[in-house]
Amino acid sequence: MYDIVVVGGGPAGMTAALYAQRNGKSALVIEKSSFGGQITHSPKVENIPGEHSISGNEFADKLFSQILEQGAEIEIETVCGIKDNGRTKTVLTEEGGSYECRAVVIATGVKHRMLGLEGEAELVGEGISFCAVCDGDFYKGKTVCVAGGGNSALQEAILLSDKCEKVIMLQDLTYFTGEETLQKTLFARDNVEAFTGVKIVRLVTENGELTGVEIEKDGRNETISCDGLFVAIGLIPENEPFEELAKLNSFGYFDTDESCVTKTDGVFVAGDCRSKAIRQVTTAAADGTIAALAACRYINSL
Hints:
It contains 7 helices and 17 strands. The chain has 302 residues and is α/β, with parallel strands linked by helices.
């Protein structure tokens, strides 16, 4: 019997395990693939307090080592459900695992929607990025493309236009879906160019580095040279296995505020998987802290 089982090994989940252990609770972290979450896609991170510059992988490794030193246990399995037994919970995995605990912190994160192009996964962090705040400085004075046309894409492009020589918007629809005020702000800038009704069909590389994208418009193909591509076509939460325990909003995110509590006693959520305005490593860690301390208080009340 564990005190707390944490579902997900990103910054939110590992921070939750850290605070659980520091408060005298036993913690098990179950992660389906690799520890660190989306931060591992960033080769250089310069917005983590106390770290002038660190790679996402290095940050994840340091946090992983820290929770192990504190006594957290680890399982590499895919959680497929949580059974509410009242004062206890049972966390079930696709591999047949069954883990009893007093409280659960769900920190499943999100995954970025990809373009589905050949070689795309290999270029993530090496020419393809998802976060202008995290990676924009790498493209100072350079040309970047932004795939997408919603609020997120427009906001990313505004940040990039402050740093880059040129920002090229690539929208598959014939119009931009983001807010009018964001569009006015972005397209008033001289270093921004926009294409609508286009489809990115190929990533152009040279010696393993991204040098451009090939787009298709009205049956004709054209290659656009660029130093980087920011993909902002949406995020995908994977919260459906837990919707009976924690309410989801219309976009599939856990519908809870900064308290990180859910409708089920003893079940808490943390990080990018919940409804929130800002998704950064620092806000994920903050959620992990809040959820873990809330879980500790809950256990103490039993």
